[in-house]
Design a protein that fits this description.
heterodimer; A: 354 residues; Rieske Iron-sulfur Protein; four-stranded antiparallel beta sheet; B: 581 residues; mainly alpha; Cytochrome Bc1 Complex, Chain C; 3 domains; two-stranded antiparallel ribbon
């Protein structure tokens, strides 16, 4: 035993001596079953070897890991049962490094369980509350500070200081105003209320970006579409904002099946255009069931009936999908008659003032 | 240094300790704390998992910052992942693809980061259950509970901001939903959304801004609060479960050095190693499949990370209410599920310890944990919260559940809506009944020992069932139960006819207190317990000659147990009485 743990008590029957005055007291009369490693030196040596083997294996796996890093090509794909086709490098690195780290942990735990004392010890707790003399000292220091600074006496200083402290964060908040600077002096309500659509603007299909003719769309069909010139606007603005508002879907149904529309004659021969942005929280919608004319949002399952003015028939959305009035131009391409008559997408505070 | 240690490593250790001590006085701290005792229980590991997974998050996250580029500038991808070659995407998405396909070990670190973040939040949640159901938040640990609630909120914030960074189709859709939620807030919502996104959605600002929050602001706050959390645990000493020799004023367990350090340190490596294995073997968030974000595209069956699922479920289950008041739009369908309900839940969580203390009038320090059955109302409230949360969570996957099990989608949603209202009260009643039943069982055991299941016929023909006395461990655990009286009803006017100015508050407090405490199966007195156990011992003794042989095999003493004195440990009430004397 080292002098660091002065022993007053004699070592007990399995060799653990009880350290004294180290902040906790050992429990003397514990009915305690000894472990094999406590009684059998062979078992103890075996445990020692196990722990050392785990630490040594850990080093070995680190070497393997570095070897895998250097030697396995990052694009190699291998088939591993259960996992399927996986990147060889990723699996090899994860496995070797994981095992290496894990072995350090299991080694340490094995060490603690087999070779370190398994006798619980007792330590006293103390209430959190301070002793009276500590209380008094704190109060005395506080009073002294109050007195010496004159915080209580100098009313004017106190009030102006509190005022100054209350004022000084104001710029820090005000400075946040320029998180958004509008270039054109528009306000959010105006921006949210206008899209790229305008009278005579051609409808182009998403993906091909070609103008759409009525005959391109069979009855029962659905096309995701955008306003003509969108790509140029995106190029110019360096963002996807215009796309996020102007995206529409075109659906064609038998004109007899259209029960209602948001405006008289807003369809063109059974072709209807609706905003693609859900009126709930703004997910794009394109799950369309042609037989029922239902449109389902994949995010929160709001369902709209496109044959009935895009009305909500189920789900958390509160508003119809806005309809875009369409027609054809003299060359026979589908065009918008005007912009949406209401803001598209999720509701907002000022929406009904727009 | 002692003369008996001559091993070179120990000498160096001693020299170093001296060198540091002369500069920091560190040996005072070490002397006090190297022998600090930590109680042992498997459930105390849960907080450790949270801490260790957080360390893994920090390590892997630092690696990712070396390669990730938080820019929304559009580039044309020309990297190693062939299916997306030539596709326009943001720099953020392209650099995430590069981390996954070009940087060796990059995918491993990215997946470890994601997995450890998921485990971090899960461990926090389960740790919080443990603390709640065992009453570990009671005095003096209320502040630490508050810090824990703050940590939970920050962990969710860290998860959300990180989830959005790859700028793939899934995370972008998540941001779109956040935009919708922000816009639903009355008065300031629209402007908040515009300020956050730097204009209209999606803009080009949001990813860099979330990045700053994700790698600086939130981890900084997390680190600060985690330090405070641990320092409080250190100063207040860990709570312990009742057991032989364990009292409210001691702590029984293993000393920091060496056992606790080896176990806790070893456990860190185990958590780390398992996360590395999962990161290598199990794919998480394969962003290359989803493609880059486009505000007019979405994929079906979108699912957020697990801890956001309940909020998504709330959004799905909410009826579609919206009203226009004085020309202003209020979207209750978004505001209630995504702002008001989480707001109420987190507020309730933060206030709970204070509410319970007010209701029970309990001002004592509690270092001994309470078994969930002995606080039936608390346990029931916890179960109610879990049931409520669970139903919302199921709601978050209702489309997947409906398609997987071929259920009617609408029927499922309506079932969940009804359950959301009906199930919590049922859960409350059932849980409380179970707790009280267990309390009755405990009382039986204290008064009569446990039923051995063996029926004896005595020489005079009487049949008895042999009751065995409890072993000292079980006796200590069960008899640690504390009974609290319901706070008395206040009087309206005292005997002099003076009106009680606090009457209404006190009356309310009496009612809440009665709600918490009125149904309680009283713990027998010590004398009753002693008599009961003695009686059981007597009945067992009758049988003793019959099964002497059997008993030889039984080990009456658990492994590594502690017993201060044979027989009964002091109950808390006895300790309080002792201290007051």
């Amino acid at each position: 035993m080292t002098a660091l743990t002065p022993t007053e008590n004699a070592p007990d029957d399995h060799g653990h001596s009880a350290p004294a005055k180290l902040g906790y007291s050992p429990v003397a009369e514990i009915p305690h079953r000894l472990r094999v490693t406590d009684t059998d030196p062979k078992a103890a040596r075996r445990a020692e070897r196990q722990v050392a083997a785990m630490f040594a294996l850990s080093m070995f796996f680190v070497v393997l890991s570095v070897a895998a890093y250097v030697m396995i090509d990052k694009t190699t794909v291998v088939y591993i049962p259960v996992l399927g086709d996986v990147g060889a490098s990723n699996v090899a690195l994860g496995f070797t490094f994981g095992i290496a780290v894990l072995l350090i942990g299991t080694g340490a735990i094995q060490w603690a369980k087999k070779l370190m004392p398994d006798v619980e010890v007792v330590q006293e707790r103390h209430d959190m509350v301070s002793e009276p003399q500590e209380d008094n000292l704190a109060v005395a220091n506080y009073e002294r500070g109050k007195d010496e600074s004159g915080f209580a006496r100098y009313k004017m200083i106190r009030r102006t200081l509190l005022g100054a402290l209350a004022f000084f964060p104001i710029p820090l908040v005000v400075f946040l105003r320029d998180l958004w600077v509008t270039p054109s002096g528009e306000n959010p309500t105006e921006i949210l209320s206008n899209t790229l659509w305008a009278k005579g603007k051609r409808i182009i299909s998403d993906g091909t970006y070609l103008a759409v003719r009525p005959e391109d769309l069979p009855v029962g069909g659905l096309v995701s579409a955008l306003p003509e010139g969108l790509l140029e606007v995106q190029e110019e603005e360096h963002n996807l904002n215009a796309r996020g508002k102007a995206a529409i879907i075109l659906v064609r149904m038998d004109p007899d099946q259209i029960r209602s529309q948001q405006g008289e004659g807003w369809d063109y021969n059974g072709i209807l255009a609706f905003s693609k942005i859900c009126t709930h929280v703004g997910c794009p919608i394109a799950l369309y069931e042609q037989r029922t004319h239902h449109l389902l949002c994949p995010c929160h399952q709001s369902t709209f009936d496109l044959a009935d003015s895009g009305a909500v028939i189920y789900g958390p959305a509160a508003r119809n999908m806005p309809q875009l009035p369409i027609s054809v131009d003299e060359e026979g391409y589908l065009v918008a008659v005007e912009d949406f008559s209401e803001p598209v997408g999720p509701s907002f505070w000022e929406r009904d003032r727009a | 240094m002692s003369a008996t240690t001559d091993h070179p490593i120990e000498q160096v250790g001693g020299v170093t300790a001296k060198y540091v001590d002369q500069r920091l006085g560190s040996n005072k701290f070490l002397g006090r704390n190297l022998g600090k005792v930590f109680p042992d229980h498997w459930s105390f590991m849960l907080g450790e998992i949270a801490l260790y997974s957080f360390i893994v998050v920090l390590l892997t996250g630092t690696f990712l910052t070396l390669f990730y580029d938080p820019s929304m500038v559009e580039v044309v991808y020309n990297g190693a992942y062939v299916p997306l070659k030539g596709v326009e995407m943001s720099q953020a998405y392209a650099s995430t693809l590069d981390i996954s396909f070009e940087v060796r070990g990059g995918l491993l670190i990215r997946q470890m980061h994601h997995w450890s973040a998921l485990i971090f939040v899960a461990a926090i949640a389960v740790h919080m259950f443990r603390v709640f159901f065992t009453g570990a938040f009671r005095k003096p640990r209320e502040f630490n509970w508050l810090v824990g609630v703050g940590l939970t909120a920050l962990a969710l914030g860290a998860g959300f901001t990180g989830y959005s960074l790859p700028d793939d189709l899934l995370s972008g859709t998540g941001l779109q939903i956040i935009r919708g939620i922000l816009q639903s807030i009355p008065l300031v919502g629209t402007w908040s959304a515009f300020l956050m996104f730097g204009g209209e959605f999606p803009g080009t600002e949001i990813i860099p801004r979330l990045y700053a929050a994700h790698i600086l602001l939130i981890p900084g706050l997390l680190l600060g609060l985690i330090s405070a959390h641990l320092m409080m645990v250190w100063t207040q000493k860990h709570t312990q479960f009742p057991g032989p020799g364990r009292t409210n004023s001691n702590v029984v367990g293993y000393p920091l050095l060496p056992v606790y350090m080896a176990k806790a340190g070893g456990f860190f490596f185990i958590v780390f190693g398992i996360i590395a294995l999962i990161g290598g073997l199990v794919t998480v968030n394969p962003i290359w499949i989803f493609g880059p974000y486009m505000p007019d595209q979405v994929s079906a069956g979108t699912q957020p990370d697990w801890y956001i699922g309940w909020l998504d479920g709330a959004l799905r289950l909410m009826p579609n209410w919206e009203s226009v008041i004085a020309g202003f739009t209020i979207s209750w369908n978004v505001l209630i599920p995504s702002v008001i309900i989480p707001g109420i839940l987190f507020t309730a969580l933060a206030f709970y310890p204070f509410l319970e203390a007010w209701a029970t009038g309990d001002k004592r320090e509690h270092n001994l944990l309470e078994r969930p059955r002995n606080a039936p109302v608390r346990t029931s409230i916890g179960v109610v919260a879990i049931v409520f949360y669970g139903i919302l969570w199921i709601g978050g996957g209702n489309d997947i559940i409906a398609t997987t099990f071929d259920l009617s989608f609408n029927a499922l949603a309506w079932t969940l809506r009804v359950l959301l209202i009906a199930a919590p009260p049922i859960a409350f009643v059932v849980t409380k009944r179970i707790c009280l039943g267990l309390q009755r069982k405990d009382r039986e055991k204290l008064l009569h020992g446990y039923e051995s299941g063996r029926v004896l016929r005595l020489p005079h023909g009487e049949f008895i069932e042999v009751h065995q006395p409890l072993n000292y461990k079980e006796l200590a655990v069960i008899s640690a139960k504390e009974d609290l009286p319901v706070l008395p009803a206040p009087v309206k006017t005292d005997s002099d006819g003076v009106r009680n100015p606090h009457y209404r508050v006190d009356q309310l407090r009496h009612k809440v207190s009665s709600f918490f405490l009125r149904d309680n199966i009283e713990r027998p007195t010590d004398a009753e317990i002693e008599a009961g156990q003695a009686h059981a011992a007597h009945s067992a003794a009758l049988e003793a000659p019959l099964n002497e042989y059997e008993l030889q095999d039984e080990d009456p003493v658990g492994h590594g147990g502690v017993l201060h004195h044979p027989g009964m440990p002091l109950t808390n009430q006895e300790q309080i009485d002792q201290r007051q004397q």
